[in-house]
Structures are given as structure tokens and as C-alpha cells.
Amino acid sequence: MAPALLEVLLLEVEGLACRRGGRRVFDRLSFTLVGGELLALTGRNGSGKTSLLRALALLVRPDTGTIRWQGTDVQAEPETWRGRLAWLGHLDGLKADLSVRENLLVAERLRGGGPAEDRLDGVLIAFDLASLALRPVRTLSAGQRRRTALARVALSQAPVWLLDEPLNALDQPAQGAFRAALAQHLAAGGLALAATHADLGLPARTLDLP
Amino acid sequence: MNGFTTLVARDLRLVWRRPGDVAVVLAFFVVATVLFPLGIGPQADVLARIAAGVLWCAALFASLLSLDRLFASDYEDGTLDLLLLAPWPLELAALAKCAAHWIVTGLPLAVLAPFLGVAFGLDAKSLVALAATLLVGTPTLSLIGGLAAALTLGARRGGALLALLALPLCVPTLIFGAGAVESRAIGEDFSTHLVILGALALVALATTPWAMAAALRQAGE
Hints:
The complex is a heterodimer. Chain A is built from six helices and nine strands, in the order βββαββαβαααβαββ. Chain A is globular. Chain A is of the alpha/beta class. In chain A, the strands form two sheets. In chain A, strands 6-7-8-3-9 form a five-stranded parallel beta sheet, with helices on both faces. Chain B is an all-alpha fold. Chain B has one domain. Chain B is built from nine helices and no strands. Chain B is 85% helix and 0% strand. The A-B interface holds A 54, 57, 59-61, 79-80, 82-83, 85, 87, 89-98, 102, 106-107, 109-112, 136 and B 2-3, 6-7, 10, 13-14, 17-18, 76-79, 81-89, 220-221.
């Protein structure tokens, strides 16, 4: 879903370490990710997958280490970096009283994206949400909500996707839709990091957190 | 400003979908103020004397009543993370939330108060002063309340803690708000009070968004 990119994207993480409540969550983590690559974060419960994603999104301050985007430290220009991100947390980030359509459009506008109305229908169809578009999210099942949250990510056109357990609550057709959207994003030169227990079904590098 | 207006519009739309939340606040305001004449008795001079203080206190409590959900609902459904990740200042987002809160709480309270003032036997000049002071003073209450809401985010018994944090900070606004109406009742000029209320609102506007943003970032960790 990312626009055609002229330059190759590059995310470098070097010596990242994070402590929560005096306990080491992860330590001296280094990896490099270029456009078109998918990094699957694996590890047991509590191994720090979510913390790593939150640290990359600058929601949690890492203790040491640097994150560089296109060679520039993201801490130097946090707002530019945030503008490159699409986030899927373990919460869906949807307003229960807004419809699927309203949720997607509001989220995209809050993200500072351009007009999304003309792209919206395609995304709704891709995630099989067209018939639910006007339903309040309150009335949807967990899987339908997750699909809406994934549609929000797909709509964003952000070059970096940070996904926390994207396959949660998804049935087989929805997993297929997600894989297709992710594959399209990677093919367009975007990159993605996904914390996951299940197989994502796409060629991915794996980072196993101890 | 695009994100700011989007967020204000979103919150107003959410309130529109659940008008009960605002109705409860306004009903509380009416019931709380009406209790005073019932408890004190129908001495017109006493009621007119305490009217300004009672209405201002009730407006303060009513405006705090709905504040504990200001950031908590976004925190619980994960939309706060999206605001934290938005590529525009979190300070503006916090301000937008307070602005939406004021539009659905402070503004109706200021409109409603003169009608209740009639029940207390306030004269026309005092009623105008009451509406004017509430109009200028309630934004401060929304901002200070918003700060308390951000600070108590994720805390147990957040609601009680919120009131405990916000009420002392609202004292200057309360004093000058009620004081303006009383000055007007005895025929004095109340513009000084109004100017001070405006100054308090500006101080709150200039300081609370930064504090709110810091508190929200902390809550997001």
C-alpha cells in the first residue's frame, strides 16, 4: 500500500536495551531492515516483543541504543519518524461508537494523512468490510474489529508497519486478506515488523527474543 | 490544525452518539443547585446572597463529573496510542480534548446558569454577570480538570483523586467568578473580575497542555 518509493528505505537499530521496573526486558539488540523486508519478532510471552515495538514507536524510552531511519537518529526528529509509522497494538484503537468507515477516516486524518476517501473503498473490500462499513464498531465481533484495525494500517500508506500480534482473532479468509495487504506493502518497498506467535505465511527474517 | 479540528469533531460526534453522558452532567447541575433553596428555606435575601457561590460551585462539580472519562476512554480502547503516535504535537491533542469537553459541558452550563439564577431571585444584571463569568471561567475548569484527568490516568480510584487534584487549583477561578456576580449585585463594576478570570484562563491555556502531554506520555509507557 505504500507509494512507489524511489529510494530504498533503511531502518537501523543498534544496541537497543530496555528495562521495565528494574527488570531487563531486552538488551543490546541490533538489526538492520531494508525496504521490502519483513521482520518477525518471536519469543515467549513476556520476552519483550511488545516493549520492542513500543520502543521503536518511541512510546517507551529505551535505556540505551539508537534507532536510525534513513541514517538519521529518530530521536532527533521524533515527529517525522512518527509520521512514517502505522501502528497496530494489542488494542485495536477503534472508537466503539463510531462506524467502521468513520473510524478509518478519523484515524487517517489524525495520522496526518491526505484525503483517504478514494482509497477507502478498496481497503474496505480487501478486508471484506464493505458490508460492515456503516455499522458502529460496538456491534462488531472481535475478529471484525481486528480486521478494521488492520484496514486502518493498510489505509495509512505509511512505509513502516509495526504490528503486535496481527493475526489475533482473525479467521482463515481474514488472515489471507492481511497477508495480501502485507505482501503488497512489502512489494511496494515498505517494511514491517510483526510480533507474532503464528506463522505469518510470508518470507520473513526472524528475530527471536530470549 | 487539521488534526486538532479532526479530534474536536470526533469527540463531539462521540458525545452526540451518547447524549446521555452530557444530560447527566447538566441534570446534576440543576438538581444540585435546586437542593440549596430546599435546604435553606425560602428567604429571598439569603438565597440571592448565596446564589453566585452556589451556582459557581455546582458548575465546578458538574464540570469535574465527566472529566474522569476524558482520556480514560481513549486509554482503554487504544486510541490514545494513535494520538501519541500522531506526527503533530500531543499538546494540541490534549487541548483539543479539553476544547471538546468545554463545548459540551462548560458552554451549556453557562447557558443554563442564568435560568437557575432566576430561581434564586437574582436580578437581571447579576444574571448577565453570572453567564459572562461562567463563559470566561469554565474553559479554565476544563483545562485544569483535563490536567488532573491526564495525571490520574490508569490510577485506581482515579475519579476521587482527580477531584482532589483539580479542586484546589480551581479555587482562584471560583473566587473571582462568584465575586464578580456579587459585585454586580451591589451595583459595582465587575469588569476587573472578568479580566482576572480571563487571565486565569490564559495562564491555564499556556501551561496545562504541556503538563497534560507529559502526563499522557508517561501513561503511555
